[in-house]
Amino acid sequence: TWKWVVGPMFLYLCERLVRFWRSQQKVVITKVVIHPFKTIELQMMKKGFKMEVGQYIFVKCPAVSKLEWHPFTLTSAPEEDYFSIHVRIVGDWTEGLFNACGCDKQEFQEAWKLPKIAVDGPFGTASEDVFSYETVMLVGAGIGVTPFASVLKSVWYKYCHDATNLKLKKIYFYWLCRDTHAFEWFADLLQSLETQMQERNNAEFLSYNIYLTGWDETQATHFAVHHEEEKDVITGLKQKTLYGRPNWENEFKTMAEKHPGSRIGVFLCGPEALADTLNKQSINNSEADPRGVHFIFNKENF
């Protein structure tokens, strides 16, 4: 038995030593941003830290718990000189982090009073392959939109500096959300991208559809009165917010007609049930002919 046990135990100990070494490296919190509905953004710097789009890190805050590590998706782009995470306050640990950062106080918080943070990572995800396709379909559900914040930021940086070398030519972005609580911080990013793309006369580069899945017909009817206005009353975007759930079969068929003979990357960050639906549609709408359209499904679940 010991021959079978000693190998895995050695690898486990090596992994723990690497994590301990990483946790001792200095991490500096450069900025704490409080977003609406108890969501905070931590912008940090760490010597030698290199990331790719859509990756995640493990975070430990000794002031809250000396043993707990929690995973968070990076919401910054590799082109930025810092890395950031968005934390929604939904439990004891996140509440403790919220208070430790002084977000519960009205006065300005001095940088030296911010808590020490340990970071392990970054670790890779399927989203890193976004730039391998000419056409991609990004689907985020609720807080699962965070990896696509990193993707969209990075796309914009690449597009501004050297669009000719960018293989990615078209992005279809879908965001499914039960309520409007998560819109505030992410809608700002979409508004910025929307404005800048229009200024460069390439508004067709990014197509996005935002779905409110938790609203009833009465609430939807109230906002439908403002449908003819230039900007959406909820998000402030030119693209109007949709209600209910998307018809994925129609969406895939429409995309296949628009991009015949291409490989389309489908990326999801969301629940397993939605992953099953998208995987099934990717298979059903891919052609047997190698020269036909093919949907390549990639997922990460939470």
UniProtKB/TrEMBL annotation:
Its main location: membrane. The keyword Protein biosynthesis does not apply. GO terms for cellular component: monoatomic ion channel complex; NADPH oxidase complex. It catalyses: NADPH + 2 O2 = 2 superoxide + NADP(+) + H(+). GO terms for molecular function: metal ion binding; superoxide-generating NAD(P)H oxidase activity. It is a multi-pass membrane protein. GO terms for biological process: defense response; monoatomic ion transmembrane transport; superoxide anion generation. Catalytic subunit of the phagocyte NADPH oxidase complex that mediates the transfer of electrons from cytosolic NADPH to O2 to produce the superoxide anion (O2(-)). In the activated complex, electrons are first transferred from NADPH to flavin adenine dinucleotide (FAD) and subsequently transferred via two heme molecules to molecular oxygen, producing superoxide through an outer-sphere reaction. Residues 19-129 form the FAD-binding FR-type domain. It is found in: Cell membrane. Pfam families: FAD_binding_8 (PF08022), NAD_binding_6 (PF08030). Its cofactor is FAD. It comes from the Eukaryota. Keywords: Cell membrane, Electron transport, FAD, Flavoprotein, Glycoprotein, Heme, Ion channel, Ion transport, Iron, Isopeptide bond, Membrane, Metal-binding, NADP, Oxidoreductase, Phosphoprotein, Transmembrane, Transmembrane helix, Transport, Ubl conjugation, Voltage-gated channel. This is NADPH oxidase 2. InterPro entries: Cyt_b245_heavy_chain, FAD-bd_8, FAD-bd_FR_type, Fe_red_NAD-bd_6, FNR_nucleotide-bd, RBOH/FRE, Riboflavin_synthase-like_b-brl.
